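TASK: fixed-backbone design
INPUT:
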C-alpha cells in the first residue's frame, strides 16, 4: 500500500500537510506545484488500496481524475475550502470541505486534529490572509509561547508559491515542505533555519518594492485594479501584493493583473470587510475559479480586460 500526498504549493496547503504528517507520519510521495497548478490529480497514478490525501485543491478542477482514482479502488482523503462542484458518493471517498470565507484548509485540519498541531495551523491561516482566524487559533495556545514571526513566516511561505512555473520560485513547494516539516513548531523553524527565512524575506521585500511602483489601471473607493509586467518578480508577488492591498484598504475590492503569454493572469480579493464575490467575478471567464474571498483567472485575453473591469465593478461597486 502506497501513500501519496497531493497539496497546493501555497502556505495553506503546505501547513495543512505539515500538521497532518506531524500527527500521522507516513512515508509518502509528494505531488505539488505552483499555487495556480491545481489540476494535480492528473499526475497521480495509484492502485486499489493506496491512499491519496488531497489538501487545498479544488474538487471541480480535478473531477475526472478523482473519479478515475475512486473507480480504481484508491482511498481518497480530501480536505479543501474551495467551491467543490458535485461531490462523488463512493465509499472510498472521505472528505471535509467547507467554503466559509473565514475557513482555510489549515483550519480544517486543525479541527480534525483537535488542535494538536495548532501552531502550524496559525501559520497557514496567516499565509492565507485570514488574520482573524489565525488570531483566534493562536488564542487557544499557551500565552507563554513565543509567536513572534509566525505571521511573517506564513506570508513568506505563501509568497514562495506564486509563479508561472517552479523556475519562478525561490524553492520548489515540495522542497519547501521538506525544509519546514522537520520543525516541531514555527518558532523552531525561525530559529534553526535562518538561511531559508533570509532568502524568502529578501525576495519578498525586493519584489514588493517593485510592485509598489506598478501601473494603476483603476483606483477609487470601491475597486482597484493594478497591472504588473511580464517579469518573474511580478509573477512571484502577485498574490501577496493582492493580500497587502486588501489589508490596507479593507472596504475595497482589488484585482492584480500580471502580463503573461497570451493575456493576463488575474488575482482578485474581495473586500476584507465582506469576503464575498471574488469567485463570482472570476467564474464569468473560462479559466476563472477560486473562493468567495479570493479567486483568480489563469488567462484573461487582453481583449476581455474591459469586460473584466465591468464585472468587477458590477459585483463590488454599489453605484454601478
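OUTPUT:
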Amino acid at each position: 500500500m502506497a501513500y501519496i500526498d497531493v497539496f497546493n504549493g501555497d502556505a495553506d496547503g503546505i501547513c495543512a500537510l505539515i500538521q497532518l504528517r506531524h500527527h500521522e507520519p507516513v512515508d509518502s510521495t509528494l505531488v505539488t506545484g505552483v499555487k495556480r497548478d491545481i489540476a494535480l490529480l492528473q499526475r497521480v497514478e495509484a492502485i486499489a488500496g493506496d491512499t491519496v490525501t488531497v489538501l487545498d485543491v479544488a474538487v471541480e478542477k480535478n473531477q475526472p481524475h478523482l473519479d478515475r482514482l475512486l473507480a480504481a479502488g484508491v482511498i481518497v482523503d480530501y480536505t479543501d475550502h474551495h467551491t467543490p462542484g458535485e461531490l462523488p458518493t463512493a465509499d472510498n471517498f472521505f472528505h471535509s470541505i467547507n467554503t466559509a470565507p473565514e475557513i482555510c484548509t489549515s483550519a480544517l485540519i486543525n479541527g480534525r486534529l483537535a488542535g494538536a498541531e495548532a501552531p502550524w495551523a496559525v501559520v497557514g491561516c496567516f499565509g492565507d490572509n485570514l488574520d482573524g482566524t489565525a488570531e483566534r487559533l493562536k488564542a487557544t495556545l499557551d500565552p507563554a509561547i513565543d509567536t513572534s514571526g509566525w505571521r511573517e513566516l506564513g506570508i513568506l511561505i505563501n509568497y514562495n508559491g506564486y509563479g508561472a512555473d517552479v523556475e519562478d520560485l525561490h524553492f520548489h513547494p515540495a522542497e519547501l515542505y521538506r525544509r519546514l516539516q522537520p520543525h516541531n513548531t514555527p518558532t523552531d523553524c525561525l530559529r534553526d533555519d535562518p538561511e531559508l527565512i533570509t532568502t524568502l524575506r529578501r525576495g519578498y521585500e525586493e519584489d514588493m518594492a517593485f510592485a509598489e511602483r506598478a501601473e494603476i489601471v483603476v483606483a477609487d473607493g470601491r475597486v482597484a485594479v493594478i497591472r504588473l509586467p511580464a517579469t518573474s518578480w511580478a509573477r512571484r508577488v502577485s498574490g501577496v501584493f493582492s493580500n497587502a492591498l486588501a489589508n490596507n484598504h479593507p472596504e475595497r475590492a482589488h484585482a492584480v493583473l500580471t502580463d503573461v503569454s497570451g493575456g493576463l493572469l488575474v488575482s482578485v480579493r474581495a473586500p476584507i470587510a465582506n469576503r464575498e464575490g471574488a469567485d463570482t467575478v472570476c467564474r464569468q471567464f473560462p479559466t476563472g475559479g477560486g473562493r468567495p474571498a479570493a479567486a483568480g483567472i489563469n488567462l484573461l485575453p487582453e481583449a476581455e480586460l474591459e469586460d473584466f473591469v465591468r464585472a468587477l465593478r458590477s459585483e463590488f461597486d454599489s453605484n454601478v
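COMMENT: The chain has a mean pLDDT of 95.
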